Amino acid sequence: MRLEDLAGSLKAEFRGDPNLEITGVAGLDHAGQGDVAFLAGRKHLKAASASAASCILVDRFQDNLAHAQIMVPDPHRSFAELLGRLHPRRRPGPGVSPAAHIDEGASIAEGVSVGAGAVVSDGASVGQRTIIYPGAYVGFEVSIGEDTVIYPNVSIMDNVSIGDRVIVHAGAVIGADGFGFLQRDGGHVKVPQVGGVRVEDDVEIGACVCIDRATTGETVIGAGTKLDNLVHVAHNVTLGKNVVFAAQAGIAGSTTIGDNLMSGGQVAISDHVDIEGGTMLAARTGVHTNLKKGIYAGAPAMPHREFLKATPLMGKLPDLFRRLKELEKKINADDKGESK
């Protein structure tokens, strides 16, 4: 679209040729002719000056930039908006593939797309404009809301509830049995997992994520929460609203996490733990006890500032240990000398 039209769609002021043609969106280092990039702070001004982008999103006009500019309050957010607008993802149109299997007792709303090889079981309901890609499985009595996207080979097991505008990426499993066993008579007795899973609105679930059903009650994924690839959420866990977990994190059973928690990758959280909302967990943090709101790192988890002080000492421990042993020998030798 033209620069003038693009700025108008963002309700923003612009500088440059109003007829400049904009064809795509890219980062400063990779942008070319026709692309829009964004300036994230003055420290990137040199990169912006050297960029081949045709237009740069800025939070205030930069006189030393030769590029066309659009001034917006939050360049990064406007950049994300334009990515979706100028590079729309192809989506299948509405309709049920002849190669899909829809049970007679299933309810499919208007505008739903169901791909080849997908299965929608008896008692399941799928809301308007939802897309179920090929090979996905929707179990008995599953409820899926409107404008949700279920990518290929997702398995949604029985009695799972999924809200509106949810995205579930390929290979995810929602509603597998929780890991519940009793050790009896030298073996393991399975505890039936008869609860469900509730995924609230605007959640995004990464590829190969596993969310276990509750033993009784529900495992809950709060509205707006984002789970990266390969995250595991165990039975009866409750995640609050707008929680973020990076890849390979694991949350053990019956843990409760408050709203707006942010977690790095490979974080491990023990069972029956309560973590206050607004907490931040650095990558590979190990949580074994309840945590108040704060920033934590290390295993076991400790306040981040303490972790930064303790970490440099780890490399010095062998030398400190050697010196300690030498001091012990000297003290013991002195004590023996005095006793004589």
Q: What helical percentage do the residues reach?
A: 10-25%
> What is the percentage of strand-forming residues?
25-35%
Low-pLDDT regions: none
Terminal residue distance:
96 Å
- Please tally the β strands and state the result: 38
Broad structural category: alpha/beta
**Largest sheet entry:** 12 strands, mixed
CATH homologous superfamily annotation of the domain at 154-300: Hexapeptide repeat proteins
With helices defined by DSSP (H or I, 4 residues minimum), what is the helix count?
5
For this structure, the CATH topology of the domain at 154-300 is UDP N-Acetylglucosamine Acyltransferase, domain 1
Cα-atom radius of gyration: 27 Å
Q: Order of strands across the biggest sheet? A: 6-9-12-15-18-23-26-29-32-35-37-38
What is the CATH first-level class name of the domain at 154-300? Mainly Beta
Rough outline? flat
| CATH architect. name of the domain at 154-300 | 3 Solenoid
For the residues shown, what is the average pLDDT? Answer: 94
Q: Please, could you describe this protein's structure?
A:
17% of the residues lie in helices and 28% in strands. It is α/β, with parallel strands linked by helices. Among the domains are: 3-86, MurE/MurF, N-terminal domain (Udp-n-acetylmuramoylalanyl-d-glutamate--2,6- Diaminopimelate Ligase, Chain: A, domain 1), CATH 3.40.1390.10; 154-300, UDP N-Acetylglucosamine Acyltransferase, domain 1. The strands form five sheets. The chain has a twelve-stranded mixed β-sheet with strand order 6-9-12-15-18-23-26-29-32-35-37-38. A ten-stranded parallel β-sheet has the order 7-10-13-16-19-24-27-30-33-36, with no helix packed on it. The radius of gyration is 27 Å and the shape is flat. The N and C termini lie far apart (96 Å).
